[in-house]
Amino acid sequence: MATASPTTAPDALDSAPEPAASLPDLTLIQRLVLNLRAARARAYVRVVATGRELSWLAFEVALPILSAAAYVYIYEALGAPPRYTGFVLLGSAMTAYWMNVLWSMASQFYWEKQSGLLETYFLAPASRVALLLGMAGGGIFMSTSRAASTLIAGSFLFGVQYEVVSWPLAILAFVLTLAALYCLGMLFSSVFLMYGREAWHMANALQEPVYLLSGFYFPVRALGFWTAMGASLIPLTLGLDAMRQLMFGAPDAALLPVGWELLGLALLTVVYFLLALRSLAAMEHLAKREGRLTLKWQ
Amino acid sequence: MAVETNAAPAPAGHSPAVTWRDRWQTFRLSAWLGWQVESNWADPLLFAVYSMAKPIASALILVIMYRIIANETAEALFPGMYVGNALFMYVGALMFGVSWVIMEEREYFQILKYIYLSTASMYWYLAGRAVAKFLITTLAVVILLAFGAAFLDLPLRLSQVDWGLFATVFPLGILTMIGLGYLLAGVLLISARHGSGYVESVAGALYLLCGVVFPLDVLPGWLAAAGKVIPVTYWLEGLRRALLGQSFAQALAGYSDGQIVLWLAISTVVTLGVSVWFFGRMDHVARSRGLIDQVTEH
Questions:
Q1: pLDDT in tens, B62-79
Q2: Around Cβ A197, how many Cβ atoms within 10 Å?
Q3: Domain boundaries, chain A
């Protein structure tokens, strides 16, 4: 142990046990294992929850189909080309991920604060990033079950015709969309950490405007090129446009060529992940300094 | 109120009769509380932006869908769709405003038991809590309609509005929605925390079945028949006739204005009667099972 300076504690205390807040030094491998376990544990809750509450499953599949049906009937009433039915259905299925990011990633620390779990997370030795990655992994599993059910049921109900250009590229577009989207969710999560009831309201306010800007129910190019480019900061904008091109063969309605959109999604993933790391550290510090970590009912 | 002041003290375990003055006070204070809960988390400007962002985004999604198809049918249907979508905001807002109080106060703020302990009538308390949502929604509807008239060629002229029909139809619909709110509040009384799915599902089903954004004629026969027994369908039809002077769906074109009002009045009375009875039953079940102060996690 280093020699105490005149301003540090007396020698007699040097042999005392480490304060509760500090952790024993862990090797890189031990730290990695610890964080992977934390991520797995956090993901496990959501994986189990996927099928445990069946009423959730019913609502989360039925609701997107109801909204999809309304939009499908609008296009039908207007005599739109049949591929618009597919556009709507794909957008409706992807709402599962956006809702999951808003309510179960961005707002999650707010919920944990309300239920008194947040302080436990912060006392645990694992990194908050590991917890968020676990949430993301579990959330993706849960949302995929909902999105796939919506897509399959909707395809049968509305007789959607797919014209898949390339399955590998379509899968790549889907994976990159989710990667960028959940990194954005991690970034939101750090910002929402500071919020009280605002978190609920913010998540609520970010639903319809994002459905509009990302073109959930119409090709995003209809917004105009530059507006759509601005909206591409939301990963679902590029992701939906790429997937529509690859699954319905609709390059005439596209915003950008698929290659550019995949590149954009990869870039967004890296940028949002790095921003999330920085923001999480900064917001955690701020929340502790302002005493908001355990503050309920703000 | 001589009767009240002269009345002998009620025996232990019995409450004195609730007067209309008590009910009015409950409604008034509940409305004020609702306004505070709705609005005091943000400064007025942010709150105004938040309140308008969702409805404007929802309307713009539909406007873009109609504009990208851009044919004669779309032009003919646009006014009815736009007005129907704007007015439908009342349905979601009032149903949610009345019913979600149960979940919010039982699960999040944990004060429902205190409301039950007070002299407040739950019916008046729940209706009062929806007043703030009614006012905010009214502002949003007025802004949307004015925007439509100013920028989207919506044929809405104040001088041509049938104010008599409007004044008859509008309040009947509001009563219907309060009734539907009581029904859902009854369901939420005996549901766990995740009951928001019920409210959203009912709103989603009504959006689909009541010909809000497309004519009922587009729906398959059995769904159109279901839509024709829901009071919201007649409410929207009546208001479209009052505001635009035209019917939206062929399915309802054969009804005179008087028949629309009659159907709406009958179905409103039935909805209110059934919902008050149902809420009373669920209230009894919740009390007997000890659910009034339950806190459920997920």
A1: 999 998 988 888 888 999
A2: 16
A3: 50-289
